[in-house]
Amino acid sequence: MNLKHLIIILLGLIGFYGMYYFVPVQKKLVSPIEISPEIKTLQTSFKNHIADNAKKVWQALSSIGITEERCRIVNKQRYELYTKETEKAFCKPEGEISNKTKTMINQVMLEFGVEPTDITVIATTKMLGTANACDKLLMVNEKNFSYFSEPAQKFIIGHEVQHILNKDHSTCSVIRNLLPAQEKEQLMLPRQHPLMQFYRFKEERADIGAAIKNEEWANNYLAYTKEMMEIYGNVDRPTHPKSSDRLNMAQNIVDTINTKIV
Q: How many angstroms separate the CA atoms of 197 and 190, rounded?
């Protein structure tokens, strides 16, 4: 299987066939928010939670011969090709993203330390969800995006920025490419397959990574998960944590913050 075919399969998991355009931005510094000792303690606790889950996922992948070190080496070798093939897959503009949404995207990227001019923003009307990120691409279906409140929208972008920071898409591309031939082209593998475990892990990591930035982001997470349940119901897919589990996680983070601050 060539890399372009593999990238299309990965994007097919969310039904995405959008096109892109470049978003011009002006560099604008975002004033840092002072982090309280309570938030720092929360961050440490949940970072440890993520690290523990990462170990479990890589142990599962190692059981089928795919180690973290092997993925890192292959990804480094193929990254330039991966980036070029990803960009080639989306080469015609489709639709527009409003200035309000562009501004929000740029501000969120800067808040998490991502330079907006390094990321290509893709407008699409065909993606089933609201947004999705490759390592250097951010795809937004603004119609679906508009169903959410502004705090929830911010969290959606913040979540996707975590995928960019963690290079989740290219890592998934490498893992899938290392699978046995009969499994590579299956969009959905059994729920307990190590690749599906990795998918769920990276989604939880993106949720938590955005939510524990500060109290505002924790509340954004709670707003998003509540609205997601209202709009889509309690979705349970092999590639994502169950919606109710994400809501419970958000509530747990917010409750933990409130308890510590009080």
A: 10
Distance, CA of 120 to CA of 137 (rounded, Å): 5
CA angle 27, 32, 34 (to 5 degrees): 175
Contact 165, 185 (CB under 8 A): no
pLDDT in tens, 58-106: 999 999 999 999 999 998 888 887 777 776 665 455 778 899 999 999 9
Domain membership of residue 29 (yes or no) is no
Whether 28 maps to a domain, the answer reads no
Contact (CB, 8 A) for 224 and 150: no
Residue with tokens 């890399």: 3
- Tokens in use for 80? 């330039």
pTM: 0.85
* E strand intervals along the chain: 120-123, 131-133, 137-140
Q: What angle do CA 136, 139, 144 make, to 5 degrees?
A: 160
Nearest-angstrom CA–CA distance, 70 and 260: 41
Please report whether residue 32 resides in a domain.
no
Q: Is 62 inside any structural domain?
A: yes
- For 61, the domain range is 3-23+37-261
Neighbours of 44 (CB within 10 A): 11
Residue with tokens 């065909």: 126
Tens digit of each residue's pLDDT (9 = 90 or more) over 161-207: 999 999 999 999 899 999 998 888 787 899 999 999 999 999 999 99
Task: For residue 122, list its beta bridge partners.
Answer: 139
Name the domain count of the chain: 1
Task: Report whether 140 contacts 105 (CB < 8 A).
Answer: yes
Contact present, 25 and 116 (Cβ < 8 Å): yes
- Distance set, CA 2 to CA 81, 170, 196, 198 (Å): 11, 14, 21, 22
